[in-house]
Amino acid sequence: MAKKIILALVIVILIIFCGIKLFGNDSVDVYNDGENITVETNTFSDIDKHKLNKEICNYTLDVMNDTTTDIIAYRHGIEDICSHYGLENVNVNIDSSIGPDQIPIMVTVDGTSMVPTLQDGQDVLLNKTHDIDVGDIVVAESDEYGGIIKRVDQIDGDRIHLISDNKGISYEYINGVLYEISGITTWVDISDINGVVIAY
After folding, report:
1. Are residues 82 and 156 in the same domain?
2. In terms of residue numbers, what domain contains 82?
3. Bridge partners of 62?
């Protein structure tokens, strides 16, 4: 009798294990605090989890530096990476220091154009989004100036006018010619916005 009970228990455990293996959902949990990224893959599949997690971390870094990738494209990118490892229908959970389904990025201010609000060398946290309002401080890629951090002054459709907080004007001699140095004002496309500063 005892042998039959033990055998029945073993069969039940095997059925449960096989059911989890066949029907359980694989998942990838990604956490980003703006500087550090952690990835945990949960699967019964025989894959190199370390290699997969590293590839997702590297992809996340690329996403953080790309102004065009939003949270939906980011999630699809992770799913595509998982697919290359044979994981289909993966449940991707993206969390961050600013909440779920957000992409935080730490940026260091370079220059004094946003004084007194932001100081040269100061670290700021931004949310990678194109959801912006007049008055927001944003990080953008300008064709004319490269990477800049400025305040949104006007929004005209997909065109965004950015200005510096520092209204001071200085003068500098360069090769014997006197130049007026003032804060940048420029127009950029909304696709050039990398994110909105949310903490400084």
Report:
1. no
2. 25-96
3. none
Structure-token pair, residue 9? 């228990």
| Cβ neighbours of residue 13 closer than 8 Å, sequence gap 6 or more | none
Percent of the chain surpassing pLDDT 70: 88
pLDDT tens column, 5-22: 665 555 656 555 554 444
Give pLDDT tens digits for 38-48.
999 999 999 99
Using CA atoms, how far residue 78 sits from 23, 31, 48, 83, 128, in Å, is: 21, 13, 16, 9, 17
Q: What are phi and psi of 161, to 5 degrees?
A: -95, 125
Same-domain status, 47 and 69: yes
- Distance of alpha carbon 49 from alpha carbon 41, whole angstroms: 6
49 belongs to a structural domain: yes
Residues 6+ apart with CB under 8 A from 133: 152, 155
In contact, 198 and 126? CB cutoff 8 Å: yes
In angstroms, the CA 91 to CA 79 distance is 8
Residue whose C-alpha is closest to residue 166's, from 153, 184, 147: 184
- 190 and 117 inside one domain: yes
- Are 88 and 156 in the same domain? no
Determine the Cα–Cα distance for residues 72 and 191; give it in Å rounded to an integer.
15
Q: Does residue 84 contact residue 21 with C-beta atoms inside 8 Å?
A: no
Number of domains observed in the structure of the chain: 2
